[in-house]
Design brief:
The chain has one domain: 3-Layer(aba) Sandwich (L-fuculose-1-phosphate Aldolase). By secondary structure, the chain is an alpha+beta fold. The longest helix is centred in the C-terminal third of the chain and has 23 residues, at 185-207. It has eight helices and seven strands, in the order αβββαβααβαββααα.
């Protein structure tokens, strides 16, 4: 589903606290799902209406240890950020800073190297074919980037990735992984969750060596549109996963 949300206002204190807690929860949940890359990969969330000010995880902090108070508050137009004592990872700053600056409608950005999606990204054709409900969910909403040139740590690479995302909400980063965007943390997590499930279906289907039974374009489009009515699933799913964190280790809220 391609989101064209209106630009949000600057967050107040209570909203900012809630956003910090949700983003910290997303890190912890992804760590439990083994969707971390050592102490790399990054999630971010805009806090200003213009998208320039955003939260992001600090450099080389494991997903499983991130707390709400750990999240850096950055300004995408601040050229001195990399001189800070707590400077973020250069690659993350390049990509997330560019996306938030160029796309103020994008409120949350999650980049990860989830196993099946990353495997799919290494294929000559890394596109997601419409095979079932989950794969069709991303019909027409998954940008494809095949220009991988190593770690994205310069401004040109950030601009190129922003262009590859275009008006899609998700990006398959060839030979790299995936990036998803949404207007809330719960929606972004849900996209990452279903993109990984869709990629798993794709990889397993390929592994049989049998011809794929693709949905028609019309059915794929109808299936994608059908997901709109189920958007509320994301909030309920994320709330349940947060409740499990609260029972086992609520320190993410600190």
């Amino acid at each position: 589903m391609n989101e064209r949300a209106t630009i949000h206002h600057d967050l107040g204190t209570a909203e900012l606290t809630a956003l910090r807690i949700d983003l910290a929860a997303a890190f912890r949940i992804c760590a439990q799902m083994n969707w971390h890359e050592s102490v790399g990969n990054h999630f971010s969330a805009a806090v200003s209406g213009d998208g320039r000010r955003f939260l992001m995880n600090p450099k080389w902090r494991h997903f499983g240890a991130v707390r709400a108070s750990d999240l850096l508050l950055l300004d995408a137009t601040d050229e001195s950020v990399m001189q800070r004592a707590d400077a973020p990872d250069r690659s993350a700053w390049t990509v997330h800073g560019t996306l938030h600056r160029r796309r103020p409608d994008v409120r949350v950005v999650m980049h990860a190297h989830t196993p099946y999606a990353t495997a799919l990204s290494t294929l000559k054709d890394p596109s997601l074919k419409p095979l079932d409900n989950n794969t069709a969910r991303f019909w027409g909403d998954l940008g494809i980037d095949t220009g991988f040139g190593g770690i994205a740590d310069d401004a040109e690479e950030g601009e190129r990735l922003a262009q590859a995302l275009g008006r899609h909400s998700c990006l398959m980063m060839g030979n790299h992984g995936v990036t998803v965007t949404a207007r809330t943390v719960a929606l972004a997590f849900e996209k990452l969750y279903f993109l990984e499930k869709a990629a798993q279906t794709m990889v397993l289907a390929y592994s049989t060596g049998q011809p794929l039974n693709l949905l028609s374009d019309a059915v794929a489009e109808r299936t994608k549109e059908g997901w709109i009515a189920y958007e509320g699933m994301a909030e309920e799913h994320f709330a349940y996963l947060k409740s499990q964190l609260d029972r086992t280790d609520p320190s993410y809220r600190d």
